[in-house]
Amino acid sequence: MLASQLAIKQGRAETAGAYAQRAGDAAARSGDAVVLAAAARSAATPLRRTGRTNQARAHLTNGSRPTSAELEAAGMAALTAAYTAAQAHRPALARDFAAQAEQTAARLARHPHTTGRPPELTAGQCLLYRIGIRRHLGDLDTALAAARRLHPADLPTAERRARVATDTARTLLDAGDAAGAFTQLRLVELAAPLEARRPSVRALTARVAGLRPDLPGLRDYAHRTGASLS
């Protein structure tokens, strides 16, 4: 699963799919519900990135499980399913999956977390996904409202905090605000410098430069992160 996630970060969707298939086979042998749900998410991401959204959704339709760890895994799968449905322009399905995840997050918040690690499925995580979901559905105002409500400190890892800024930058670019998007890209670098060097984030930098090549600090930022400016 980790190799698949790394391949996605590098923009190698087909390689990610091959690793995800191996992860799925290992998860099936384990019989562990949490591992199976996590492997389903790994399998869905490269499928979604290569346009196979129906297959991606098929990997993400497992029901809730009785333990808190299993509920969390199912809730995270529902968030990924919501994002996938939004990319496929299925708004009702995206809203249903997102609501399922939010209800599960609220349910888990009422009980102590006993896994020995910070919870992954939280209200903040759901709000982060809401930014991308609403952006894919074309509702930029709602996406930006979600971004304003979300405090990066509420998220457990630097990668997730960088994702907030990345998704907000994408939304601002869609709204035509290149300067605001560049401000968010700088926050990506502050939160997790390697995230700013991802191919997809470098592409955002190039989009900003195409709209506002005069922005102070843009060329230095592009040089540091390896983005190509025309």
Please explain how this structure is put together.
With 230 residues, the protein is mainly α. The chain folds into three domains: 59 residues, no CATH class; 82 residues; 74 residues, no CATH class. 71% of the residues lie in helices and 0% in strands. It has twelve helices and no strands. Helix 9 runs antiparallel to helix 10 and helix 10 packs antiparallel against helix 11. The protein is globular, with a radius of gyration of 18 Å.
Total of domains: 3
SSE class: mainly alpha
Strand tally is: 0
Unreliable segments of 5+ consecutive residues = 62-66
What is the helix content?
Answer: over 70%
Percent of sequence in beta strands: under 5%
State the order of secondary-structure elements, H for helix, E for strand: HHHHHHHHHHHH
* Gyration radius from CA atoms, angstroms: 18 Å
- Tell me the major beta sheet: none
